Amino acid sequence: MTTKAKYEIRPLDCWQWGKELRMEAYRELTSGHERGKLLVLGCAASPYGLLAGLGDFVFLAGEPYGASVAADPPASIPAMEAYEARGYARDMCGYMRNFLGSMYLDKYYFTGGPFPKFDFIWSIRHCPAGHPKWHHLVSEYQGIPMTYIDDETWLTPDGDPQHRIEYVAGQYLESIEWMEKVTGRTYDDEKAIEAMRNYFHNEALWGEICLLNSAIPAPLDIKSYFALMPIPMLRRHEAVATQFLETLRDELKDRIANHIAAVPNERYRMCMMTPPPWSFLKIFRYLENFGVVFVGTYVYLINSGEVKFLFDEGKVIPAVAPEERPGWPQMKTREDLCRTIARWRAEHPFQSHMETRKKEMVILDKHWNAHGWLLLLNRGCVVMVAPMYDIQRHFQKHGIPVAMFEGNFADCRDMDETGVIDRLEAFLEGQGIQKLPEA
Amino acid sequence: MNAIEKLQEVVARRHEYAKEWKNRTNGKVIGWFCTYSPVEIMYAAGMLPVRILGSHEVQDVTDRYLFPTLCPFSRDALAQGLKGRYDYLDVLTYARTCVHIQGTFECWRINIPTPFFHYVWFPNHVDSSQAMPCLVAEFVDFIQTLEKATGKSISQGALDRAIDLYNRNRRLMKQIYDLRKGENPPITGAECMEMVVASQLMGVEEHNKLLEELLEELPNRDLGRETGLRLMMIGSEMDDIVFVRMLEELGCTVVIDEHCTGSRYFWDEVLPEENRLAAIAKRYLDRWQCPAVAESFKNRFDRIIKHALDWNVQGALIYQQKFCDPHEFDTPHLQKMFKEHDIPTLTLEFDVTIPFGQFRTRIEAFLEMAGLEVF
User: Fold this and answer.
1) Cβ contacts of B227 within 8 Å, gap of 6 or more
2) pLDDT in tens, A38-63
3) A404 in contact with B at a CB cutoff of 8 Å?
4) Cβ <8 Å between B125 and A383
5) Which of A50, A289, B44, B256 has the fewest CB atoms within 10 Å, counting from its CB?
6) Structural domain span for residue B179
7) The complex's ipTM?
8) Are B134 and B251 contained in the same domain?
9) Which CATH number fits the domain that encloses residue B112?
């Protein structure tokens, strides 16, 4: 592994468009009300296309907002201190602390102006460690109504999941009635179905885009994926997101055909399972000095995208929208829609049980032509860290090199940058990778 | 040996008790992880339900399985499994509530051989009308696993008997809790904790008999000690009896509690219904909620303050297992609520083992401060 390859690098043509779409979404939070849009808060994995039945809306997902604040320590530290000053513990969800701290400071990160006041909170429960409580604190502080859907039909191979799907679908239906009541608006099923069609399609598109990084050299690095991620994460119900993602996909295909790389000296390909330490994204740039390119991460490939794993063949392929799947009904009514969402969620890789997830990880390793994995022992998210040692052992069993480091993904005060660099340099040295002479 | 000593014996020799029970009855033992696990169904299957608890010993066996930011209780519980102390289990079950214990359950499933595992997917949106049918269906799945494990079917009569026995158990424990409302409670908080922990470890019939004995003994019992400050203990899982003994030696008595090895576990009964599984489901959906399940503070807080007032509490000890997010959310709000009722609070964070000296100093200071306000 000492051969030094040289590839052409080039900025993405659609980069600026992506940046504009991302900022437009965040700016809408401050001006959406003026145009009659509803402002709704929830978790990023919520199927928020359902909200379109009420009319135009802007959806803020707390996690990407928290990540944006966390990436900027001068903004993040006061936010977390404001949160902690209210008596809450500093070992809780890092995203949440950044988000709630911003709210308590009344400082919206993207404009510096007042923090948005939401019309209501509608979300999936998502994280058993605290997302409903997070939203409950916002609900109490802003005096706004809140509902949630308990939809984690996941994490167990025990029992028949059918009744869980009915339970989830029923909650979505109940939530529609609830939204009509709290907004006084009449729900339009057709608008919701159309928005959810976009949502499913864009999820699959993002998954397809992430899978394109199997190419050598990788056409895009993980930093760029993270920068573009708010589009599929916050706007995946919109047609404009489809236009952008299709453009991005085509451009990546073109880059692959012409060997345009993300890292000019790519020679060691790494993947992650979790989000990165947001305040320490420069780690990726630093490791480029070793010819390391980070080609993907599990969580944000399947969290804001969808793929299909073919376990018998050991492959992963792009997903298709539910209505295009054999045996899935067309969505004509809100009942069809809610049942489709519930079933889709239940079968989504995001809900995979640990034993399945481990298989998925090995398939992804092969697909992305990875040389090694980087696992974050995340002090800021118990859900992500719970299975980490088991995954490490699974990788090792399959002969996949894996490096681990400990820190907090959203709290710069809890991130030993020098220590992490030391660990990674030692890991790469063990892999026969030294710093490039020209670096 | 009086009833309290017998209960203490079960707690201290929990594994021997379960093994002896198994030998004596030729029955199966089921380990359970969270108080949302339906013990009535386990008992109706002819099994001994045993709660998996830690041992509060320093251990080094879990660090390659669970990251240290998983709560101490979940790591301590896993340590017991890894050390083979629960090698007599025939089934291990977990009712979906807390991600920390879920991590322990899944880790156990992968790394510790046990004949059967069953994850009861407890619907956490307990206020939704959709939750009841879902939980009933979960119970049907659970019953299938238990029937497979025991080779016997669960009859309606067995369910009725289990419901009656557990309801009686709850009523008896409540009667004993009521005795603590008096000026000089005839039972300490540590003894009460042992009583409840024993209920999670031993056969319910046998436990009921001991409770009946205890109810006969308690009216004539003189503890020979000052009650001191009347304290409420509030928090997450807590079975550190040595700690509670130390606490009560410092000039206070725990007269009421709110945690899952205390009142939160047993307070609510199963109300009779034609559909037995629906009746059991209703009990668990409507019960005194753990903060890991209830997204709002209301259910839990209303009950806490009512108990604090009914038991004439003069101070509250709020404690939590380190890294327990749901309790970490509640703590500042609990402090505020107690302050509004002029009840002083002390907050402590627990690990697998605790710093006794430091905690002792803090508790003494708290009792001095609270005592000044009360006496």
Assistant:
1) B183, B184, B185, B253, B255
2) 999 999 999 999 999 999 999 999 99
3) no
4) no
5) A289
6) 158-374
7) 0.94
8) no
9) 3.40.50.11890
